[in-house]
Design the sequence.
């Protein structure tokens, strides 16, 4: 494997984009914006003076169909695959080719660096708020959920680390790679539902998301054609799986549901992902004509900050409105819910704006001179960063030793990415 990874990937059969692709930028920005919009819109919150209970507006009967478009994580992974392929192949094909480990070092720094200010705020914050008399249970809910949303970074880190090797497989085997990943997802679900052991399903964290990520390679080479067929086939397969299989209709986890299509991801999620990719690529000519260049230029360098800090903004507003003032969320779909939503959303934006202003600068890690990097060190760095992110995903920022260990792992991984030899 080392021999394969140390060599630059061969030039693709089709031309790779020579500059940033506005379609991929649009998918990344719109995808993250929809995630934030959904997280801010769907909570149903109730505080009885002791416990904060959280529900989901999408639990309303029949509303689950919205999630086939609003659950945009498949598009985010697809856009990430295309962006990684374009970036890596351009660097490998340049006159001064960047070795794969050095390429990975840059990506690891960009993923891990924005987490440091989040940890710097959230590790002491629960202790400070508890000392000020903030109720423990609502605070614990916020601290844990802030970390749980980092699952995306943990999985995306796997995809980024595997990109050089995945591109070699792509060059050698083409469509057989995503087909094999999809077949593995089928076998995983069969084993999960036939054995009743849900933990088996977590293999699909790799199979499902890597299959969608791999599709991005075809787009980067201009080889993702017949998008309408992919859209119809994906959504059609999802409809059959939901109708006749053990899968719920919703593509997000709902309270009380026996099965979630997201945790772990299922074959139904993969089918919806294929449908979304096909639909997006089919609509590409219209999407790239939208006058959104200035918006993309502004939002692009801030999307990680928005993702990391939108839940803290939600908890700040919840703490004041729901916990302190005792104003519970109205019943979803009611007149009060629609009437109050603009005020709720406005408060969230008001809190989010200074967070963006203050923390967006951490999206760009410190400039470091490039040096010699080896696969051993970079894989160790990826393991440390991934371990830190996974620790925060499981335990969040609730008081305890877990967040400290996670930050130490993140710092260790970042230190391993620092160059040791100047060139």
Sequence:
């Amino acid at each position: 494997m080392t021999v394969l990874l140390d060599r630059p990937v061969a030039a693709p059969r089709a031309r790779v984009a020579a500059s940033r692709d506005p379609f991929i930028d649009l998918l990344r920005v719109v995808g993250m914006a929809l995630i934030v919009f959904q997280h801010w819109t769907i909570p149903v919150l109730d505080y009885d003076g002791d416990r904060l209970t959280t529900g989901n507006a999408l639990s309303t009967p029949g509303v689950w169909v919205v999630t086939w478009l609003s659950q945009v994580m498949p598009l985010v992974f697809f856009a990430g695959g295309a962006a990684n392929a374009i970036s890596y192949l351009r660097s490998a094909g340049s006159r001064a080719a960047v070795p794969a480990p050095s390429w990975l070092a840059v990506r690891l720094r960009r993923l891990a660096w924005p987490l440091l200010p989040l940890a710097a705020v959230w590790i002491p914050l629960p202790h400070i708020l508890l000392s000020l008399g903030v109720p423990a249970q609502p605070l614990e809910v916020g601290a844990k959920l802030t970390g749980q949303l980092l699952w995306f970074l943990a999985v995306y880190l796997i995809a980024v680390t595997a990109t050089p090797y995945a591109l070699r497989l792509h060059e050698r085997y083409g469509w057989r790679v995503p087909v094999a990943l999809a077949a593995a997802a089928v076998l995983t679900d069969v084993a999960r539902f036939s054995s009743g052991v849900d933990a088996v399903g977590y293999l699909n964290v790799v199979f499902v998301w890597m299959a969608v990520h791999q599709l991005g390679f075809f787009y980067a080479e201009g080889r993702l054609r017949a998008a309408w067929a992919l859209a119809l086939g994906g959504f059609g397969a999802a409809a059959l799986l939901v109708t006749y299989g053990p899968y719920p209709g919703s593509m997000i986890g709902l309270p009380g549901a026996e099965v979630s299509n997201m945790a772990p991801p299922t074959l139904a999620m993969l089918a919806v992902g294929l449908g979304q990719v096909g639909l997006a690529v089919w609509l590409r000519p219209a999407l790239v004509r939208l006058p959104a260049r200035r918006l993309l230029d502004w939002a692009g360098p801030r999307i990680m900050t928005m993702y990391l800090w939108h839940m803290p903004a939600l908890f700040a507003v919840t703490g004041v409105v729901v916990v302190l003032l005792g104003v519970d969320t109205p019943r979803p779909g009611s007149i009060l819910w629609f009437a109050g939503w603009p005020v709720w959303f406005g408060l969230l934006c008001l809190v989010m704006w200074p967070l963006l202003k203050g923390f967006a600068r951490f999206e760009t890690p410190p400039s470091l001179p490039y040096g010699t990097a080896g696969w051993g060190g970079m894989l160790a760095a990826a393991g440390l960063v991934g371990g830190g992110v996974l620790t925060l995903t499981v335990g969040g920022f609730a008081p305890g030793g877990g967040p400290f260990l996670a930050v130490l792992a993140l710092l260790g991984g970042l230190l391993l990415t620092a160059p040791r030899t100047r060139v």
Notes: Confidence is low (pLDDT under 50) at residues 1-15. Residues 280 and 327 are 39 Å apart (CA to CA). The two ends are 26 Å apart (CA to CA). The chain is about 65% helix and 0% strand.
